Every structure is written in structure tokens, then in C-alpha cells.
Amino acid sequence: MKYGRVIILIISLGIVFTGCGKVVDTTSLIQAPMLSNGKENEINITLKEILPPGSEYVTPKNTQQKQSIFTEDIDKDGKTEAFVLYRDMKENRQVHLLMLQEENGKWNKTLDIDTNFNILDYFRLEDLDGDGKKEVILGTSISDSEPSKQLLIYELDGKELVNKVNRSYEWIDISDYNGDNKPEVLILDGEITKSKTAEMFNYENEQLKSLTFVNLNPDGLIENFVSGKLADGKKALFIDSSLGAHSMLTEIVAYDNGKLIKVGDENDGNLFKAYPLYSRDINNDGIIDAGGMYIPKGFEDAAMAEIPFIYTYSDYREDGTHEIIEERYTDSVQHFYIIIPSKWYGKITIQKLDQGVRIVDNEGQENLFEVKWINKGLYNDSITKLGETKDTVFYTDIKEELPISKDNFHLLKDEF
Questions:
Q1: How far apart are CA 311 and CA 330, in angstroms?
Q2: What's the predicted TM-score (pTM) here?
Q3: In 3-state terms, what secondary structure has residue 46?
Q4: CA–CA distance from 140 to each of 52, 87, 169, 245 (Å)?
Q5: Distance CA 97, CA 57 (A)
Q6: Residue 163 CB partners (closer than 8 Å, separation 6+)
Q7: pLDDT tens per residue, the chain (416 residues)?
């Protein structure tokens, strides 16, 4: 699961369904469309009748499933429940959890829980204790700027959702960390500058039971986290936190021999860096890569704002060993990047040109790549275009093929 600074998606004119792996989008609260699935159409009609006028559907910020309605038989009684996440605009924009149950082919409103919070951070239906029935997991907060959130875990008892857990958290991940084929609940919580932990829980006997924890840097303000795999296949959580005015620390949390551990040396240039660079699966191989950066030769004494940092992305193993799997020069002002071939990892520097940059080999000072930019209105066909944005053309006027291929040039917008 990938999370971070994701702006909440508020769907004021649409509904998103999920059930049995199928997702269907409808288009309006006012006019129910003809859906291929009759059950979903019935839900849509019911919601049009019972939801307050002007209600907005909300989706959780920090879960993969970006939808507002979840349909599933969570208590295994043969009847499907529908859970609807919406905001009542006449009630201080508070988030509600509405539950419908199917009876005799009709959908009936069973309950409507007012969370007393304005932001929906997390929602998931998951069998936490392995009894075959799924719990309803809800995370809410007062505002986007408030790091402390509230975790609520409900169990369905007939027509009632019974609250079993109500506790604070900052970030949450639900995954099988210890390989027992049941999900664990990993909670990041604490108070900045004082104490922060990553703590693993089992859900047993309707309560969260602590298994193990590891301390996190208390000065870090978490900006992003990614749940995924290390290079050796072990499950891990990558936590990217801002430190001070502009630095960032990546803490990698994994499970080993009954306890949570932190992976790697936090003082190296991969995990502690001068500016934010989030962890991600950079090459889509299923392994999460920690972002790092280094100062190229010749810029050691330059002002921070003048340093053209070279970005690296590294695979880590549980024992802390790691290797670079991608290196790139990124120009965040001009919004492009150049992928560096592995033979030049750690061996290049940057020369700044008037309206351009050159990548140079440290040893022989060989020109490896060159890109310039020009206003689109001044471009002519005699130069080789590398890419273009609305107002700018990126090009090279070097005719011969340079050691770094033109194909290694990319616009940042193409990556997303």
C-alpha cells in the first residue's frame, strides 16, 4: 500500500462501489444511472432517498481502495451489508458511516454513525482475528494538519456495529508482517519531540494486543509511508519523516525473530537526506526503494540551494545491506529528469549552462549528456527535440550520439 500527502477525494456527484473485486462508478446523487448490477442500482436508489440533501461522499485518504461505498457480507449470514462513507454538509461537514442491510430484495438503513470528525483517513473491512467475519476499521481526524487521529474498530452484531477499539494513532498499516497468514495492525503513534513508536498488535478477544514495538525518531514529522517488501522478500514499512527546515529521514521497520527492528544505518546518505525524497517502487519490481541523494563533485562548498543533488534509489535487505538500483539527475525547476546508466553511478557531476545542463564524467570530463531548453515560440526543427511542456521545448543541438541515450531524458509529468 502506498500512502502520503494524498488530498482527500470528495465525490459530491458520484458513488463508488466495491464488492467481490468489482468497482462501479455512478454519476449522480440526483439521478440514479442504469447500472449493470441490479443490486448496486438498488443501493443507489435507496441512498438518493435517505441521504440528507447536499451530502458529499468521501473516500479514505490513506487506503488503496479509493471508494465511498463498500458492499460485503462481513458477518457471513448470507446477507450483504453496504457501508457508505459520506459527509453531512449541514452538520459542520462531519464524516458519517451509514450501514444498509439487504432484506427481501430491498436495502434498508440500519444505522448511521456520526464520527464527530471532519476528515476520513482510513477505512477497511478486514478479518483481523481469523474467525471468518470481518471487522469494520475506521480512522478519522479533526483536520489535515492534525497528526493525531482516532482509530475505531467495530464488530457487527445483528443490526448493530459495536465499537471494540477506540484509540489514537498517527499512521496505520494492516498487513501480515510475521507470516502467520493473519493481518497484524501496525500503529505509528506518539508525541513529536518526546516519543514515537511503531507498535505491532494482534486483534484478539475484541481488543488490540501488543506484540512488539520499536522506537522512532521523535523529532520526525511523518509525511509519507509505504508498506511493501525488502529486496530479500521480507515485509517492511518505509516511513519518510521531515526533520528540521528541509531534511528528511527514512526509517525502515521490519519484523525479525519476534520483534520489530529498524533496518539500515539512518546516518547514511540514503536514509538521511538533505531534502525530501519519498520511498517508492521506482522500477515496478515489487520492492520498495529508499530515496537518497549525494552532492556531485565540484559542489561540496556550494550553498545548499545551488547544489544539483544526484538522486539515488536503493533496495534494502533486512540485514541493512543495500544497493543502488537507479540513479538520476532531477531538475525540479524545469520538471525533468535524466536516468544515469549504472556504469556511471557515483561518477558524474553537473555543469550548468545558460538555459541548460550537461552531465560530465568525473574522471575524463567527457560530455555524457546535454539538454537545453527554450521558449516554445523560438523552437525550430534544426535542433533535436527531447520533450516539451506547454511553454518549453527541451532539446539538444549535439548531432552525435552521446554516451547517455536521449531515451534517458524524461519529463516529470510523464512519470505520474
A1: 7
A2: 0.86
A3: helix
A4: 21, 12, 10, 28
A5: 10
A6: 152, 153, 154
A7: 444 433 333 333 334 444 433 322 322 332 333 333 667 788 888 999 999 888 999 999 988 778 999 999 999 998 899 999 999 887 778 999 999 998 887 899 999 999 999 999 999 999 999 999 999 999 999 988 788 899 999 999 988 999 999 999 999 999 999 988 899 999 999 998 899 999 999 999 999 999 999 999 999 999 999 999 999 999 999 999 999 889 999 999 999 999 999 999 988 878 999 999 999 999 999 999 999 999 999 999 999 999 999 999 999 999 999 999 999 999 999 999 999 999 999 999 999 999 999 999 999 899 999 999 999 989 888 889 999 999 999 999 998 999 999 999 999 988 76
Residue 62 CB neighbour total at 10 angstroms:
20
Burial class (CB in 10 A: 0-12, 13-18, 19+), 44: buried
- Listed in sequence order, the residues at least 6 apart from 369 whose beta carbon sits closer than 8 Å to its beta carbon are 338, 358, 359, 402, 403, 404, 408, 409
CA distance 200 to 303: 42
Domain coordinates in residue numbering, the chain: 40-167, 332-415
Strand ranges (DSSP E) for 171-220?
A: 171-175, 184-191, 195-204, 207-216
- Residue 76: φ, ψ to 5°: 55, 40
335: CB partners within 8 A, 6+ apart: 389, 411, 412, 413
- What lies within 8 Å, CB to CB, of 65 at 6+ separation is 18, 123, 124
Per DSSP, the three-state class of 246 is: coil
Q: How many CB atoms lie within 10 A of CB 266?
A: 14
- Rounded CA-CA distance 61/202 in Å is 24
Alpha carbon distances (Å) from 134 to 75, 77, 157: 7, 12, 11
Separation CA 83–CA 111 (nearest Å) = 10
CB within 8 Å of 68: residues ≥ 6 apart: 11, 15, 16, 57, 58, 59, 84, 85, 86
